Amino acid sequence: MKNDSMAIRPLLALGFIFCISLPIVFSLVQSQQVQAKKFCWFDNCNQHQNQKQNTTEQKLRRIAYYESWASRRPCSAFHPFQVNADEYTHINFAFALVDEEGRVNLSSPNDTDLYNELKHLREQQTSKTSPQLWIVVGGFGVSSVPFSKMASANASRAAFVDSALQFVEKYDFDGLDLDWEYPGAKDKGGNDADKADLVLLLEEMKPRFEQKGKGLSLTVPGSEYYMTGFDLKGIEPHIDWINVMSYDLHGPWDAPPVLRPHTNLTEINTSIQTIKKAVPAEKINLGLAYYGHTFVLSNSSCTTPGCPSSGAGKKGNCSLEAGTLINSEIEDLLSTHHVKITFDHDDAVKYFVLDDEWMTYDDNETIGLKEEYAVQQGLGTFIWAVDMGRP
Ligand SMILES: *[C@@H]1O[C@H](CO)[C@@H](O)[C@H](O)[C@H]1NC(C)=O
Ligand SMILES: *[C@@H]1O[C@H](CO)[C@@H](O)[C@H](O)[C@H]1NC(C)=O
Ligand SMILES: *[C@@H]1O[C@H](CO)[C@@H](O)[C@H](O)[C@H]1NC(C)=O
Ligand SMILES: *[C@@H]1O[C@H](CO)[C@@H](O)[C@H](O)[C@H]1NC(C)=O
Ligand SMILES: *[C@@H]1O[C@H](CO)[C@@H](O)[C@H](O)[C@H]1NC(C)=O
Ligand SMILES: *[C@@H]1O[C@H](CO)[C@@H](O)[C@H](O)[C@H]1NC(C)=O
Ligand SMILES: *[C@@H]1O[C@H](CO)[C@@H](O)[C@H](O)[C@H]1NC(C)=O
Ligand SMILES: *[C@@H]1O[C@H](CO)[C@@H](O)[C@H](O)[C@H]1NC(C)=O
Ligand SMILES: *[C@@H]1O[C@H](CO)[C@@H](O)[C@H](O)[C@H]1NC(C)=O
Predict the structure, then answer these.
(1) 4-24+61-290+363-388 has which CATH code?
(2) Which ligand is nearest to the CA of 57?
(3) Which atom of ligand 1 is least distant from the CA of 55?
(4) Which of 61, 185, 244, 383 could lock 20 by a disulfide, CB 3.0 to 4.6 Å apart?
């Protein structure tokens, strides 16, 4: 995930943004527990059967990420008040930064206006459907550098934890989603000590957050490559859940670029099975992409997965990122052009050719298959991102 205030756009340019969160069954609990902002899982809910509300009040965990820069798009701009809040259990605001001193801070001073719109949404809802608001700290644009530095020493970790909790309390968020991309990734400024340092950091954060009734989650990549920097077994006790970025698995940034869907369910399943060995399903959220990737064809008669590409397709008129189109842009293209869409049911992806480009994306049918998969596997879900249009 990226931060455009750093002139880096969300998913596209470098393309390894994975936010897969698997929404899991999330039970809203009795009102006094809700006030205490505690979380109730399958098992602990059963232990407290007498406190549990009627099952009609149980909701699947379904998180919506919101990108602050969506409010400033030249077209298809999207403001927090446009979020259909009763569809989601949580709204995650992307992003807040880690500054040079290793402290959490605003990405832009104007973000507080967007926070206020979100709080208005939260307050409008009845307590039964009110989504929680979480702040996402980091993102693809921040890289590993400030995290690696901060996590490497006891004093700077402690200062980060203090600033994180202060930030969450000051702006009245219900939790914090840590988006360190990625511990141990040398190409992103990480180092070998990160893996153990991340566990220490979360171990120190969790009791402080819990004491204040605040949630704590972690985003993890959907690719096996970047996953090697995460000690999932060590992390698992110290987080409420992880959001698995099950997208951007392939893209025009690959070397060499090859036509491939970025949300191939067969590949996603492989990652999820690995993660499930360390993290119980009810703590995993599966990421659903509300955008697609575009590739320029190298050979106009070779248009199937595996064919060569010469790189990223043209940027969209609103999202302005070469190689990526958000769903509202794809929908515009499909409504104004006649194309032949291929639906690969097994891999739960769609793609088509338009002029000299190959485009792969998710729509309501492929998202539906991925949601079914999440239910079968006992996972929650999250969407990246709610501002990109409907699937
Ligand atoms: C749950 O609430 C619904 C609607 O209020 C009601 O119709 C239903 O009978 C309740 N179920 C249980 C098990 O209490
Ligand atoms: C946080 O950001 C604000 C606004 O961008 C800035 O004025 C302030 O100095 C920053 N705080 C710290 C502790 O860096
Ligand atoms: C912040 O708000 C001010 C005043 O409305 C505006 O001039 C400025 O362009 C905004 N900055 C960003 C980054 O949106
Ligand atoms: C840093 O923290 C670790 C773990 O809590 C502790 O074992 C170690 O003694 C601390 N080191 C220093 C220099 O304070
Ligand atoms: C999806 O991934 C599987 C496993 O890597 C692969 O066999 C299949 O060809 C992929 N599907 C597409 C459409 O690329
Ligand atoms: C996911 O992988 C498991 C284990 O290999 C397999 O049993 C299951 O059928 C796969 N599901 C999908 C949807 O690919
Ligand atoms: C273009 O693709 C077609 C179909 O796969 C293939 O027969 C042809 O050899 C390719 N042309 C070149 C120049 O690679
Ligand atoms: C951008 O707008 C132009 C002019 O309306 C249109 O021809 C083109 O298809 C649009 N591009 C995309 C990616 O939507
Ligand atoms: C998907 O959307 C299309 C167009 O709005 C609609 O015709 C179709 O029934 C939907 N399919 C599913 C599975 O929701």
Answers:
(1) 3.20.20.80
(2) 1
(3) 1
(4) 244
